[in-house]
Amino acid sequence: MTQDVLLSVQGLTKQFPTRNGVVRAVDGVSFDVKRGTIVGLVGESGSGKTTAGRCTLRLIEPNEGRIVFDGVDLRELSEREMRAYRSRLQIIFQDPYSSLNPRLRVDQIIGEALEIHRPVRGAAKRDRIAELLERVGLNPDAARRYPHEFSGGQRQRIGIARALAVEPDFIVADEPVSALDVSVQAQVLNLIQDLQESFGLTMLFIAHDLSVVEYLCDEVVVMYLGRVMERGPSREIYAMPRHPYTQALLSAAPLPDPKASRQRVVLKGDIPSPMNPPSGCVFRTRCRYAVAACAEVVPPLEHIGSDHHVACIRQSDPEVISQGLTL
Amino acid sequence: MAAVSSPAIIEASFVSRLVTRKTVMIGLLIIAVIAVLAILAPWIAPYSPSRLSVVNRLKPPSGIYWFGTDEFGRDVFSRTIYAGRLSLLVGASVVAFAAVFGVTLGLVAGFFRRLDTPIARIIDAMMAFPDILLAIALVAALGPSLVTVIVALGIVYTPRLARIVRASTLVIRELPYVEAARALGVPTWRIMSRHVLRNLVSPILVQGTFIFAYAMLAEAGLSFLGLGVSPEIPTWGTMIAAGRQYIGQADWMTWFPGVAIILSVLSLQMVGDGFRDLLDPRLRKDL
Description:
Oligomer: heterodimer
CATH topology of chain A: Rossmann fold
Low-confidence stretches of chain B: 1-6
Order of helices and strands of chain B: HHHHHHHHHHHHH
Membrane topology (chain B): Multi-pass membrane protein
Distance between the termini of chain A: 33 Å
CATH superfamily of chain A: P-loop containing nucleotide triphosphate hydrolases
Transmembrane segments (chain B): 24-45, 88-112, 132-157, 255-275
InterPro entries (chain B): BP-dependent_transpt_permease, MetI-like, MetI-like_sf, OppC_N
Largest sheet of chain B: none
Structural class of chain A: alpha/beta
CATH class of chain B: Mainly Alpha
Helix content of chain A: 25-40%
CATH architecture of chain A: 3-Layer(aba) Sandwich
Largest interface: A-B, 33 and 23 residues
Mean pLDDT of chain A: 90
Number of strands of chain A: 12
Strand content of chain A: 15-25%
Strand content of chain B: under 5%
Mean pLDDT of chain B: 88
Main location (chain B): membrane
Strand order of the largest sheet of chain A: 6-7-8-3-9-10-12-11
Domain ABC transmembrane type-1 (chain B): 84-272
Number of domains of chain B: 1
Number of domains of chain A: 1
Order of helices and strands of chain A: EEEHEEHEHHHEHEHEEHHEEH
CATH superfamily of chain B: MetI-like
Helix content of chain B: over 70%
Shape of chain B: elongated
Number of helices of chain A: 10
């Protein structure tokens, strides 16, 4: 492990027991997040990306795996020890409505975050709250108001201010713009990028929108049905996706140029039930390149150069490679 | 869209909406009159509630005895308003008892998964008993007194509140703002009080109003059965029980305490219904 890796997730597994059997929401997921970079975690709904994000903060207890943050395995910490680490890892939520307590004023919401880790009172606290609000592009007057008085975008900014209040090193952004109007999405994304640069934040950015991830992230992890299909530097993945699933996802993303067209890889059917995933490669039921061997073995994540990993037994097949080049 | 369902919005216009509802206003007015009469009974009552006057036994209502007199010549009006003090005291104490224990049990059951099943089962088991039967059993076991009545009815109504608090806690516990508090490292007790309990004020208020009414009714029932407070203290229940024997000759002895019970329970129900309707988004349209 190189020293500039801030967070290393290894073999993360989370199973949920249900009445009809065990759901493997996250199944042996591994990735590293280097200090000061943004890693995008993408996949369809039900791919386990949100659960993986929650697990890295131990908001959900994973069943297996290591979460090494700054040299410490978070899973080995007790509840109490973990509490001391909490301020270093924060989260921004998807839904700007349910992520703010409707009964608390904005200064109480942000103030709670401030007080948790160091006692601040009176004018110092007020100044710090005003500073945070200004930093996220809100008027300091917002402090005395309740969440319902704000729009979705403004509420998301309040949520970001709350996360920043504890001066974290690492932030999980769980689809922070997908619940917002398109016109507001860009503003909030710019804010996140700006804050990431000025505070040197390290982020795990969960999204299902690949164009957002391309714009923001240094590296991408593609998940499908709880497993990592492909991961690597954004530039490489966007230029030459090697996994058929990544290719399908990318082909579905709209291009900024209205005249440009690209070959579409249309996926048939829905994501299979995680209760009863397909044998071997979980993607094989929807994969146009699937062969009989795909059902036999779980494809390992293979290293194919410069941090780029792919979990597909046909990744070196010319047919699959050439499809990636047409996108 | 989402802003409309925000509890804060409901809160903001809650008082103004409440005041515009006729049933709520009438209910509040009646219960206020009863409360004032009861609280100021020593100054309002024309006679002492225990003053005997054998000459004036079983007198019908008149200018001297507004509600008539009972079999010992005691003034029914004075006794009715004095009895109101006890009813209100029992009602308020039972609500306080049920609020403390019901909210605590409900929060703990809803918040800590491991304690949920045992607590929820106990709540269900207690709710399986008819209210008044459970109260009778408890009073019979503990011996009748004012404290016993309050404790017994408190125990009877605690599960009602606990169940509602538990159900709401289960929902709120999973909301992102609670998760945000956990991510910040906010201690559990603080999450429970600041993030969960604060959002439960409205349902607790509604249920508390109903429990107040049920407790007053149950206290009257217990007194009627001779399982209430000591017989020297006038209560609506004991007054009706005594008047029952004279119902042919002196129906005013049962009429007035009966009307007092009906009015107080009805008015509290009207207020409670109003609260509930205002807080239920499905019913708010027709306001």
